[in-house]
Amino acid sequence: MGEEQHPFRRSEAFFGRRKAKNLSIPQQKLLDELLPKLKFDVEAPSIENLANAFPHNPKKIVLESGFGGGEHLIHQARTNPDIGYIGVEPFVNSMAKALSAIEEHNIQNIRLYDEDATELLDWLPEGCIDRVDLLYPDPWPKKKHWKRRFVSQKNLTRFARVLKDDGIFHFASDIDTYINWTLNHCDEHPSFEWQAQSANDWHTPYENWTRTRYEAKAIREDRTPCYLRFSKK
Ligand SMILES: C[S@@+](CC[C@H](N)C(=O)[O-])C[C@H]1O[C@@H](n2cnc3c(N)ncnc32)[C@H](O)[C@@H]1O
User: Is-above-0.90 flag for pTM?
Assistant: First the structure.
């Protein structure tokens, strides 16, 4: 979401907008009826075994923070039915779109959260996630707004806490200053190690990749996608 809109502060996060346009009746129905069945209740006590939140007791669980149009989340969940996916997105219209796809394709391996990802990260038990995906997070390109970026030492510590010992953090962006920002933050953080061996690594999309809406926009506007991979150490 652009920084020209007026973000409101909920917990620690900055969001552009939570709701852009009126929802259709079917979308509202999905938000009222399907979302409560799939979303985590962070007011309840935390869950001991996260796999129990899914019907198929997955061995691997991936969390995507800020899934936007849901292209990547839905593609991943459909092509890896054995894996459990957690999608987080506070923007209501995007959540409604993801719910439509979940219903249309009868997807069983997605659980959701519709507020600030930091709230869910603080609620989840330690060491329960195999991979965190942060794909094209809001760039906050103006220097005076950089501190609003999702990548911070505090949020990296949140990722590190929920990741399993051999967990992975994926960060994709087309914004040079955010890519450098993330490399520097992970370098300074005790729990993350950049996995790159050669320049090819950050030009190569992740396995089973599908283009997100923001990546398509970046390419249209002549910016180069960069795919960073960090392992937990
Ligand atoms: C630039 S969009 C990218 C969306 C999508 N990942 C893509 O590549 O098309 C960033 C998304 O992150 C979401 N977001 C921003 N702050 C967030 C937060 N604190 N927790 C969860 N999602 C957040 C926004 O609502 C927005 O949908």
Answer: yes
